[in-house]
Amino acid sequence: MDLKSILEKLERGEIRADEAQRLISSASIANLSHTRIDLDRRARTGAGEVIFGAGKTPGQICEISKKLLECGEDVLATRLSDDAISEVLREFPQAKVSEIARLAVIRSGEKAKALSESKIAVVSAGTSDMRVAEEARLTAEFFGSSTRTFYDCGVAGLHRLTSVIDEIRECRVVVAVAGMEGALASVVAGLVKVPVIAVPTSVGYGASFGGLAALLAMMNSCANGVSVVNIDNGFGAGYNAHIINTL
Amino acid sequence: MDLKSILEKLERGEIRADEAQRLISSASIANLSHTRIDLDRRARTGAGEVIFGAGKTPGQICEISKKLLECGEDVLATRLSDDAISEVLREFPQAKVSEIARLAVIRSGEKAKALSESKIAVVSAGTSDMRVAEEARLTAEFFGSSTRTFYDCGVAGLHRLTSVIDEIRECRVVVAVAGMEGALASVVAGLVKVPVIAVPTSVGYGASFGGLAALLAMMNSCANGVSVVNIDNGFGAGYNAHIINTL
Amino acid sequence: MDLKSILEKLERGEIRADEAQRLISSASIANLSHTRIDLDRRARTGAGEVIFGAGKTPGQICEISKKLLECGEDVLATRLSDDAISEVLREFPQAKVSEIARLAVIRSGEKAKALSESKIAVVSAGTSDMRVAEEARLTAEFFGSSTRTFYDCGVAGLHRLTSVIDEIRECRVVVAVAGMEGALASVVAGLVKVPVIAVPTSVGYGASFGGLAALLAMMNSCANGVSVVNIDNGFGAGYNAHIINTL
Amino acid sequence: MDLKSILEKLERGEIRADEAQRLISSASIANLSHTRIDLDRRARTGAGEVIFGAGKTPGQICEISKKLLECGEDVLATRLSDDAISEVLREFPQAKVSEIARLAVIRSGEKAKALSESKIAVVSAGTSDMRVAEEARLTAEFFGSSTRTFYDCGVAGLHRLTSVIDEIRECRVVVAVAGMEGALASVVAGLVKVPVIAVPTSVGYGASFGGLAALLAMMNSCANGVSVVNIDNGFGAGYNAHIINTL
Amino acid sequence: MDLKSILEKLERGEIRADEAQRLISSASIANLSHTRIDLDRRARTGAGEVIFGAGKTPGQICEISKKLLECGEDVLATRLSDDAISEVLREFPQAKVSEIARLAVIRSGEKAKALSESKIAVVSAGTSDMRVAEEARLTAEFFGSSTRTFYDCGVAGLHRLTSVIDEIRECRVVVAVAGMEGALASVVAGLVKVPVIAVPTSVGYGASFGGLAALLAMMNSCANGVSVVNIDNGFGAGYNAHIINTL
Amino acid sequence: MDLKSILEKLERGEIRADEAQRLISSASIANLSHTRIDLDRRARTGAGEVIFGAGKTPGQICEISKKLLECGEDVLATRLSDDAISEVLREFPQAKVSEIARLAVIRSGEKAKALSESKIAVVSAGTSDMRVAEEARLTAEFFGSSTRTFYDCGVAGLHRLTSVIDEIRECRVVVAVAGMEGALASVVAGLVKVPVIAVPTSVGYGASFGGLAALLAMMNSCANGVSVVNIDNGFGAGYNAHIINTL
Amino acid sequence: MDLKSILEKLERGEIRADEAQRLISSASIANLSHTRIDLDRRARTGAGEVIFGAGKTPGQICEISKKLLECGEDVLATRLSDDAISEVLREFPQAKVSEIARLAVIRSGEKAKALSESKIAVVSAGTSDMRVAEEARLTAEFFGSSTRTFYDCGVAGLHRLTSVIDEIRECRVVVAVAGMEGALASVVAGLVKVPVIAVPTSVGYGASFGGLAALLAMMNSCANGVSVVNIDNGFGAGYNAHIINTL
Amino acid sequence: MDLKSILEKLERGEIRADEAQRLISSASIANLSHTRIDLDRRARTGAGEVIFGAGKTPGQICEISKKLLECGEDVLATRLSDDAISEVLREFPQAKVSEIARLAVIRSGEKAKALSESKIAVVSAGTSDMRVAEEARLTAEFFGSSTRTFYDCGVAGLHRLTSVIDEIRECRVVVAVAGMEGALASVVAGLVKVPVIAVPTSVGYGASFGGLAALLAMMNSCANGVSVVNIDNGFGAGYNAHIINTL
């Protein structure tokens, strides 16, 4: 039953208010046996559902994509395996895929939205952090934010950062991506006025413990204005940066 | 020596009571060199031995299955590798296998038992948690409980949960399966009167540390009525739910 | 505004259904600036709010108690400091306090409810686990369950457990309280048909790491039918046992 | 040497540019032997230095405060011991102190700044999280943001949250403060369009491990739009919320 | 230079005592560039060097074996990869290999030594712990101890243990091998008079954390007489048991 | 009912064998409400119950002591608080107390047993490990073993160890007590033929994490013949050493 | 723009000093989209950039190498995959590769520099630690230090170490490489006057937790003069040793 | 027996060389029952024994000090409690005590040694790290190194560091002391040519976990030339810096 029918029934007194509410809840879910797509999410949070690809079969990912497109939602699918990328490209030839960021974008309409004027700076510490930084950049752009990238600006050579700091300062939010000791987040935050979303990565020798070292370091930043997302979670950083950028 | 012989010997005074007891203990074990099957378990705990497949060879799994079937026990074998599944199907064509839950059921008799009238609700947070949820569901059904499933009801879209909460409330126990931050367990427990068995899963980004994040979260639930089983342990949850359901 | 007024307004068309719902939500909360008491909890989960005393001032605890009593709810306050116990006894001379379990019970009416016929077995491993076991026992009794206690039955002397196992088997749920290696939970669960709620305690030498050793052990129980609550969380175990006992 | 003298010297060619730069750097530091106050911080990051009281003697705290006031900066000193609070009040009778949040504010001028029109919502899970929530609130207000508080809205009673969600939605940023399993952050983030700054607290039973459980849970939030600050770091949350609020 | 020459030189006053000592030290080492075999170890500790195969190439393993055999030492090589086993069998056709325990024994003489009269009991909790238990058994036998095995005696079915406890009591040392919660060590130690060497294994669901759960449990045993070796370290347990057995 | 009565009843056919067994089990327990003393322990494990003082009140400790003495058992009570020591000395003036090891010994008869001829070497790394080493020494002597102590022999000055190694080699077991990096255990084990019981202590700078560093180090000893007991568990080491010494 | 042009512009007053500085910063970076090579590093720290191969594609590694060679820098690339080694050898036939240490050296000029007179001692505990020890040795030699190696000198056979200690004492720095319990670092440091750089390796049984045991042990060394680098970080140790050696 | 007597006996053939060696070893130890002072340490490692005060009684500390002074060694005692400081001052009025660094220096002769010409830079991140930085400084000076201090130079205000970097560059070693995220070590190491000894401190909010965050960060430094000592181990850093400084 769609939303309109429910409301008419309510008006005609055929159902009561609480019954109506339950129906409305159900109406805003697209139920695919394995997945209940939250069709109300855009209204509630400002952005539709995104497909977290890890642990889902290529078939499930395509099914969910199809349903989202039917509902007029653009599709962003992250953490795609090689198989999932192939399947997505076969099913949706119009999909745009990033090999390095392991994600796919499938627009439901002809063209992407115009991007915001204000910009997000995506700053990364090392070349090896690039896959996470790209996930952040592409996520932010998917939702409609402009970005600028400043890659390989780790603190071992501070001038790599200071030589671009004025450009970073023109942005409205900073995403700081770093593995190893994650010091980039603190140093950047000490130099800018805007919020810094820090993303620890799993890059490093043994005692990085899969990114734990960088995560703890960023959590403990001595500079103000840093908040942290999960290890390697470029998506989360891009999303957070976007909603701040477009506040 | 079987139980009857032992008791007769005891009656005839050929053995003393303590000797008899030792013999009875031994008689309730089927010794397969690598494995001592506990044939007394059903009498003691209400349910026979189950085969935990991890770390056992396909050959060992089939041997144990065969012995259990000979003793009139139904077989539930979990955590099966692809090889083990093939071998089980070759040896026991009547076996019912779940690819997603990685388990096999082999009935010793013609038909499965009737299922309980009261139901277990198996609620999961995301599509990627499905393999664990299915292990819980199939385990509970193996032992004789009816179940209802509510998959992909994570708290990021609360109405996915609230739209089915009345149906969940009709069940006698809830199994709540969630990875990432595992908040589902707390939210469900705040809405129902029955026990909630929480199962953390290993689904998530880096700082889920293989399910540790969800495990700790569920342990620390601010809602009452939650108890927790091991990470990805759908079997344990299904078993616990079953014994509560049929109390 | 109380519930009745809200419903009348709704009937008279002075407010709409969604407004009514919001008002009803608010009406079921007693707002004490620092605390929002959930007056709907009994209807929803079968049991009223309980006061977790840790981190609250004696004054806050008494204020909340007073409000709960006014609403006709019995009071259970746990984790009380010496100061909080004194203050509670001064304010509510009828309160019953357990020094060892650090909790207080204040009945809103003349007498406690009748206790259930079926029983909960509270089994503990060592004398030093007693404060947690008593928290479990008194919690279960507060909510209306009968209990039996079997203290100091740790597995270092198995006959201390086996000599009472038949009495434990007559109970409908078992709470197993143990620090150190927490083996009690596995051993008991291998001997009974009913659910075992395991409570790790922080008792032990250095490498118990505040109860982590027992927690992990209980999580990994090789016996079926064990689920686990937080370290030293006698309250949670008592509550879980009670709702299972009275299903 | 003050900034003006340096620039004059440079103009007169008495010093070279690099020398000038070094002098300017030094000029923007107030050196108190134990502490180098960063007088340039407001220009660079939008906010002056704050005194982190932990590990400093009352004497050091007062000395730093005095110097900051001399430089025309307002003082915010956090994590104050009882001794430090007494000393601050003795030295600066005009200081405003929060006993619960353990902080002091000393204005350098007559009156506080006008507060922002847009608001920050400070939402907390339980009464025991109040000290951290208050640190966040007072920090945000110190820097010039308006706030609204919603305390004790933990997910064990969802209607405590949903009954105020519309008011929360009117705010521009949310600070979500929770101990135990920290689920509040995920649930709120699933219901709002604005950024959620999550603050884990050290409130909880043993396996919260001093706030680690909540920290990991918040890191792993299944809802989008959550970023996390350090355990019990109300200051960091308030600061982050403020800079987002006034972007 | 061999030992004899050194001593003669010393006698003839051609070298001084300290020089002699340095030469003796060197003489007791067989230096293979990658490896310095400790030829003095048997004299010092009662047993020759053993080859820990992990991280060594098949070539290195064979080279060390050859040198040991030349010096009249029997060879025990543990943790062998498939490649290493093949290479060892090609080079030393007389080698005895255990596929399950991943080790090889190569005797330097015709026949193995006579085994001790007193026995070591190797007790394991589950079938999946067998590879570690076998490593322990074969190690103990390599050094000259008799053994008896009691596999799959986990505490979920206590009678599997109690039915053999009298036979275990006849042994002089017990090796207790268990994964999951590792309770076997405590229960056995509560029933015997002899030392129990506990070996945690990496068998278990997620929260066993690779054997950490069992390790901590065994460390915290409430029964006296338990000491612990590394996770999956069957070799260490077998060695310890042997030296105790032959004291 | 005492053992004799039970056996007579059984002889007269007044009770059956299983009933008799249950009664015998109960008869071997002295039940003090808070504590069930295991009177069968000496028969089963070779040594009577010991009182672990942590978490017990002085009153409980004295009550248990009294009962043990009544049953003819000597008393060893460890981990005593100052209060407990005072109370014990008041109640049992004959008690022998070690302030540094925090334990008390109360003999039930006139004189202590003769000590074993073979000796236990108690070797410690630093002066600060002395309280644990003394707990080990006094425990071993309580049970009847002779000991020799070699304190402050840490590996930073190897000759402190090598100058006494010949005396250590005359002992039948070694207890090696060390905090910090715990290297003492490996070095000693590489020099002797007998078993080494390693005790990690909580002595050290921050990253010893309460003894975890030493515990892991000892677990990973590259020398053979080391097994490990809990952090600061001098008692456990002394007990283990004793049973090995008197095998 | 190169440095000369910038300085000329500054002289001619075409740019101001701060602009000049920004340009100079940029001029010292070779920007390859994915990587910003820090061309100023040698001037600042005494050594040029090194390529950390993990997480970089073979193509990126070759591109960076090429650019470094163009700028007259020698190339050291570590942590190379098999693919990366092949690609490097194809592109730079003059490269010198170590299969065991997984690194490549490509000289920009005809010949390597002369090596220092003073030496670095690289001491390792076991054969399995060799790949890390070789990374340290080759790194130190790349930068211009002479080295001596002492492999397989673990403390289980102290004379393997003491027989070479005089040669070690002739060196100016010691690199101590060890897995398992990492005791080598403490023992060496107690015998020499020079700094010891300790490198924990990931060699060991389960409870080495990927090198954590050795790392903590080395951190907690009871001997003075030890500092520690990351697990398996032979490069870091070699670099540190080199700068100390050539101070 | 003193060294001279031993050598004479050896000359006269009254003892053999190995006996002599054992006696020499013993002679280089001052045995105080609780402590074996290593009198050979200066000869072997270049520096005499230091007293680690934690876990020692004031009496033991004074006894050891007295013995060291008798042997002509200067005394450095660290980690002193208030009681120990009082006792030391009472016994040795000439002692120099640092309240903040918790250490005492007692010279055996009239005056301290001349300090080295080359200098150690002690750089700290925040005021709260001062007690550790002072321990490092005073330790280095005790052994004879000159120092310069640069306190409160954390990376949140980089110019606090860059304004003094030229002075730091004049030093021969850097000690970098930082809590929280410990980024100071990486940033300094990227700017200097000399070795950086990093000291993590336990300063920080909850998720610093007692200094673990800073320790891991420093271990994972992306800048070359950093090695790390234990948390809060100012002594170790000062010692390491000194031996490098005076190489």
Short structural summary:
With 247 residues, chain A is α/β, with parallel strands linked by helices. Chain A has eleven helices and eleven strands.
Could you characterize the architecture of this molecule?
8 copies of one chain form a homooctamer. Chain A has 247 residues and is α/β, with parallel strands linked by helices. Chain A has 2 domains: 16-106, no CATH class; 119-245, Rossmann fold (3-Layer(aba) Sandwich). Chain A contains 11 helices and 11 strands. Chain A has helices at 3-11, 17-27, 41-45, 58-70, 82-91, 130-143, 158-162, 165-169, 184-189, 212-219, 234-245, and strands spanning 29-31, 36-38, 51-52, 75-78, 96-98, 103-106, 119-124, 146-150, 173-178, 196-200, 226-228. In chain A, the strands form 3 sheets. In chain A, strands 8-7-9-10-11 form a 5-stranded parallel beta sheet. In chain A, strands 3-4-6-5 form a 4-stranded mixed beta sheet, sandwiched between helices. In chain A, strands 1-2 form a two-stranded antiparallel sheet. In chain A, α9 (184-189) links the parallel β9 and β10. In chain A, α1 packs antiparallel against α2 and α4 packs parallel to α5 (82-91). The longest helix of chain A has 14 residues, at 130-143. Chain E binds chain G through residues 22, 25-26, 28-29, 33-36, 38, 40-41, 44, 49, 52, 54-56, 60, 64, 200, 202, 210-212, 215, 230-233, 236, and chain G through 126-130, 151-153, 156-157, 159-160, 162-163, 166, 203-209.
